[in-house]
Amino acid sequence: MMTREFLLIRRPEGIPGPDDFKLNTRTLGPLAEQLVRVRTLLWGVDPGLRGRLSDETSYAVPLELGSAVTGFVVGEVIESRDPRLAAGDVVTGAWGWREIADVSPAAISPAPERGGLPLESLLGLLGIPGITAYFGMLDVGQVKSGERVLVTSAAGGVGSIACQIGKIKGAQVTGLAGGADKCAWLRDSLGLDAVIDYRAEADLDAALARVFPDGIDVVFENIGNRMVDTLLKHMRNHGRIVICGQTADYNLPPEQRHGIRNTRNIIGRRLRLEGLVAMDYASRYEEARRDIRAWAAAKKLITKEEIEVGFERLPGAFASLFEGSKLGRKLVAAA
Amino acid sequence: MMTREFLLIRRPEGIPGPDDFKLNTRTLGPLAEQLVRVRTLLWGVDPGLRGRLSDETSYAVPLELGSAVTGFVVGEVIESRDPRLAAGDVVTGAWGWREIADVSPAAISPAPERGGLPLESLLGLLGIPGITAYFGMLDVGQVKSGERVLVTSAAGGVGSIACQIGKIKGAQVTGLAGGADKCAWLRDSLGLDAVIDYRAEADLDAALARVFPDGIDVVFENIGNRMVDTLLKHMRNHGRIVICGQTADYNLPPEQRHGIRNTRNIIGRRLRLEGLVAMDYASRYEEARRDIRAWAAAKKLITKEEIEVGFERLPGAFASLFEGSKLGRKLVAAA
């Protein structure tokens, strides 16, 4: 049986390009004992992967050169040597940019109950993006009714869910995004209280002061150091900055990243900055999914996906994340 | 009745100097209705005051030019037009660098029970330093038995109390300080598990890696951005950095401060950075003081003060804080 996979052959400098990856075709032998053979149906395309392509230590060890690119996926079992899984089962995992993969059952999970949501929800509302938004807003951010909340990368896969969870909890939610179409979607489709189009604002400080004359209680932050440094000037006492992503910094070596200087406000306004990784909440995934399914059924949570078709489009889809031009969460589906 | 006071007449650049303050003598008229006249017995000399001398916004509004310098003090009531206070009462407040002051009863507090501790404990163990160390370690830092704790400015007024509270709670406590005498005191008198003399270490990263081969759970941080940036590389998963002071940054304008870049670890290691201001815990002061008195009585908490005598020595005592050379908390007593 033939399969294709993308290997990381070079550590990207800046935005990952086609020469950083190699499309490799190889033959799979018979399935080894205790493994499960899966065919990938959907690949999530997430900015967080960028960190693993560098050789900096992060919560995940850097991906080794020559190995297949990792990433969250949905697949179907096509052969199983584990009694708990059978051909036809839909499963999720992180086996990454491979069309067919032999994986350990410990590294895959049966798909959770979808409650009427489409397959792609397994990589969105019911997957890591939804889990991240849920625990980021509620557990780390401790968002309360009436609080003033800012979500950056608000039109993104995680940010757009975070915005809506804020609204569900009764917060005043402002979304920050780049481009008129994203901002219109946030305002008109998600019903946010305000939007900031950072491309249309010459002075972000002035925009923040206009939208948050009394300051910000909770930030759900996806951009990086420069944004955090700006936001530190606009926080209210006891404000929380949930450090969820650093999209603008992933492509920069540490010495080129913006350095955060407005830290006097951390004491002065008793601020909390805290990072989160969704996988830490593994024992509570079902708690999040129960709420998310109910909110989605009540049309309080919607998503927008852009699905490209064809395995070979993965590197391009990934690079496009850093151009920041598209509206909707990016996925690639098997042809 | 004559009194003397120090006025802020210029915003200091760098370390505050004698030309930034003016010793002013003036005559007090009869005590106004509802006020209390106090004679200052002891002035606390704290690096945190430095922030208020600049015109940057902080948790306290900047001190106006021409007004008396503020700061925590202990005094004795010499005349009262408030029925709750009488001549001879020992009180604490923040009326600052004034020998005699007419203050509102709302701005002063009767001295708490000292439990055998000396008068200066009202500005140390039982005052803001003790309260800050207590809630910083236990409430913000959530220090637990067996955890690996680093306290910076460990020989300082707040840091030395924080170190000992860490030991009382069963943590492995390392103190970071500058100079052999401070480090000897931390090791021999406070019984810390390890000390790092940052002046004797050519490479702080190497020293931290040596003392914390498995990383740091909790940092009680008093120095500022450069230190935080270094420490971010040495934290364990779910580590907490209690941002308590920024002594190295107080004297720098924001654009000259070090910028924090190692923020990838905030997500990667799920770190929490959080600032605190002791006054937020006003409703819980007695909870801290009850523990502190008991620990002091059991000789588990000791302090070291350096008391200069004479009101006129305040500006010099304050400036000396930023030279970092002295061991022991600085106080000035009335002659």
- pLDDT < 50 stretches of chain A: none
**Oligomeric category:** homodimer
User: Superfamily at the CATH H level of the largest domain in chain A?
Assistant: Medium-chain alcohol dehydrogenases, catalytic domain
What is the count of helical runs of chain A?
10
The CATH first-level class of the largest domain in chain A comes to Alpha Beta
Structure description:
The structure is a homodimer of 335-residue chains. Chain A is α/β, with parallel strands linked by helices. Chain A folds into two domains: 2-123 and 303-333, Medium-chain alcohol dehydrogenases, catalytic domain (Quinone Oxidoreductase, Chain A, domain 1, Alpha-Beta Complex); 128-279, 3-Layer(aba) Sandwich (Rossmann fold). Helix content of chain A is 24%, strand content 26%. Chain A has ten helices and 15 strands. The mean pLDDT of chain A is 94. Chains A and B meet through helix 6, helix 8 and strand 13 of A and helix 6, helix 8 and strand 13 of B.
How would the blueprint of this fold be written?
Two copies of one chain form a homodimer.
Chain A: E1 2-8, E2 21-27, E3 36-44, H1 49-53, E4 73-80, E5 90-93, E6 100-103, E7 108-110, H2 128-140, E8 148-152, H3 159-168, E9 172-177, H4 180-189, E10 194-197, H5 204-211, E11 216-221, H6 225-231, E12 235-243, H7 247-250, H8 264-268, E13 272-275, H9 285-297, E14 305-309, H10 314-320, E15 329-333
Parallel strand pairs in A: 8-9, 8-11, 9-10, 11-12, 12-13, 14-15
Antiparallel strand pairs in A: 1-2, 3-4, 3-6, 3-15, 4-5, 5-7
Helix pairs in contact in A: 2-3, 2-9
